[in-house]
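Shipment paperwork, digital attachment
Item: protein structure file
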Amino acid sequence: MNIFITIPDAPERLQEPAPPADFGLPVRTLDIAAVWRSPATATLLAGEIGRHPGNLHAHMQRISVWHALGNPAQTAAAVVDLWIALGACGLDLRTRMLRQHHGALEQHNLDIYLHARLHRGVDRHDPQLALRGVVLARPVEGNRAFLRSAPIHASPASMSRTP
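Attachment content:
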């Protein structure tokens, strides 16, 4: 198997491969934007995050790509996904992301919102987090208690069944 791609007009020259869509990105650097700086790369990373939300490496790569592309809306969505994945853990990382991407979060009024939830994390069911591009949010408004205990109404007459 040849991992290099040759240029048809000049077979002696090698061309860098494009990121494969089926096998994930072959780059294990957090600064992936320096290697593949395109929305397609960020979309591929979003798919990876949807399949494996605990892959913090993919989260950081996605944030890096959108930030390098200068897209504050998608940068904010990527930061929100990271916050959802971290839950109540990762206080230092959440603080760093809040500081580094304050401008992108501020455009969606999320800077103050996330700062207020810095120590306890965010809930993926919160409708405030349902931005376009957020992969892990599942917004639900109202009461999320789908099951409740039913009261037991047993009368003494129905309890005693004698044949």
